Amino acid sequence: MLIKAPKGTKDILPGQSRKWQYVEDKFRDLCRRYGIEEIRTPVFEHTELFQRGVGDTTDIVQKEMYIFEDHAGRSIALKPEGTAGVVRSYIENKMYADVRPAKFCYVIPCFRYEKPQAGRLREFHQLGVEIFGAEDMAADAEVISLAMDFFEELGVGELELRINSIGCPECRAEYRKALQDFLRPHYEEFCDTCKSRFDRNPMRILDCKNPHCGELSAGAPRMIDYLCDDCRTAFEELKENLSALGIGYTVDPGIVRGLDYYTKTAFEIVTNTIGAQGTVCGGGRYDHLVEELGGPATAGIGFGLGIERLLIVMEASGAPMPEEEGVDLFVAFMGEEGKKRAQALVHDLRKKGMRAMLDVAARNIKGQFKYADRIGARFTAVIGDDEIARGEITLKDMRTSEQRQISLGELADVLTAAKKDKTVQGE
To answer: Got the DSSP string for 55-124?
Structure first.
């Protein structure tokens, strides 16, 4: 057995996990304020769901999905993104019959077989929001507003919102022809993947990561110039709604997103804080996805962002991170009776919300104090025969070395006051 994590995966160690918890808690709290509830879907789905939902011309489906057969011969895929699974759940559980719009958020692991790099792993984690049943562009602005608010509350600056419209099936038909006419003279020069997309979905060629393909498609027609009246009006309404919220933006006709289900609104939030310009959040509207997967015609809008990449951006931009929570009290003991009293005391303090610890490794009293110092205990208390006889403990402030005798009944109040004083002083 290999004692090494698989390529493209990474352990989240205790010292790092508090940062993850901090980000996830901030996200869930913000979603709560927006009236959005959490949904949890399986880590794997039927492969067909992603082939139909994400699109069989995307890099995700063609190259990156983890697919396997279960014992019954069914084709199963680890989820490469969050939206398709939420749509499946929305349809299967008939949530379209409930109050609209339906609003969901999620914190999930995703899996894509691609070259690992900073902030992009084969197992990665995603925060996402999906809203179903809202056709008005105010929903698009609200989703974008939530994403921008999230970054602001985390203290991440130097962000730029970029928006585009990628039209609808009606206006895309004319654009498709114009794009194919532009690309056709260079057809033989494109990579095999782009050649396979030429007839089925030529817009995906514009999203190819091959630099040569990018050069060949430079100067291609822009979808934004082929919008039908409805899509053009919707895009103007989006811009008006963003302005009403005081959210600045740049129109970027080059945004096509990497998934086939998008219609009309497509957006990205980018930063310069990690060197080359990078996208830290992306999303858009998908008004036909629910219907394509077997549900009733239902408008949809959402976004996703990777936690790994977000943490890199937070560090680069100097965003505040939570400090390690210290131990309120370490109880050292001497003798068997002292051990029993220490166990009971620690158990009681934990019930009262204190972070209390005692030795469980059979150290002598000197070793216990060394351990208390290593774990950064704010206070230590000693319980031995003398303390038991007096009904008191010796409490030591590890920062000032001050010692005093207090009754067991006072202990919780003393620790609570110390925690409040720490908060007031901003320690």
So the answer is: -TTSHIIIII--EEE-TTS-EEEE-SSSHHHHHHHHHHTTGGGSSSSEEEEEEEEEE--S--BTTB-SEE
